[in-house]
Amino acid sequence: MVGAVTLYAFGSNACGQLGIGHTKDTSLPQPCQVSDGWKWPAPIARIRGGGSHTLVLLESGDLYASGSLSNGRTGLDFSKDSIVMFQKVPRETLGCSKVKLCSALWEASVVVTEDNKVYTFGLGPKGELGAGEGVTGLSHNLDRLWPPEEQIIDLESGISHTVIVLSNGDVYGWGNGRKGQLGEPAEIVWKPRKIPNLDFKVERAVCGKEFSYLVGDPGEGHHVVLGSDKWNVISVAPAAIPGWQNIGASWGSIFVTSYSGGVCAWGRNDHGQLGPDRCPEYVEFIAAGSEHALALTIHNNVAAWGWGEHGNCGPGIDERGDVKGWYNDIQADGFGKASKVMGVAAGCATSFVWIQAADGEHSPKLSKDQADELN
What we know:
globular; mainly beta; 4-stranded antiparallel β-sheet
């Protein structure tokens, strides 16, 4: 029997963004709550974290949110300041359509539906909502300023800017582009604008705090970093990244994994964000948070490193709150009766791991250490 999927979270939690039923930070993974239970009704497709809110997208096309509700940033009713468990975003908010992609900014969210419409929610003083000059709040269905026959195949956001990748390889973006992260001219971009002068077909994109990272076909390895060269994210980038498998970006660092299991990383490293010299072997996927990263290996282990002051790298940090020069090994056995780690995600000092139980009857309970941490 295929077991149920359970999501675990640890890290910063002042607004309930971990969805674990309370608002205390935790360094030990705790099971997330879905309304009044633990089990997710469908497999998890992606997780994205904003400044104090989290979005969970299921393969069924349903979207869930937890954390701060201020300014309507999640698409949920924001008569309350925040919620501490994940609740489903009504499809009526999204034109009754299924969701295929989602991303989170500092105080806003972006959603792409199956019918290729883009919705934005929350606060956007620097064009984050993409709804036109001077539009800084509430929810919006964006004007489709890209070719209507092209599908949106990727969506990512940084703190204050967003990019979408189209099926023809073009890239559009909006939000804070003052550092050139949305191409030229370098300015606030209030509506979706095509990023010019790209000399390859883009397949994936990720966003840092002041840059966008775009990659093309893995066979050719074309890539480009647009925006600020702070932390040398542009000047020390490799000439090409052939054979890339996955990409990620923290606020000031870039990560590329290859099909051979290796990791290439460059950028900011003052808190150990790039990981130790000897990374875990055979990394299958890396999730980059604000200033930390999680790596999932083919051996079903999870490693964490970087700035971990809020517990987002697990227990075991130095006097500065960092996991620098080593990594914390967060094994699947630590989550209870688990057979396989299905995925990892990272947000703003938040970390998420979802597992599939050995059977369908997995009911997570807090361990003694987890219970003691809450007291």
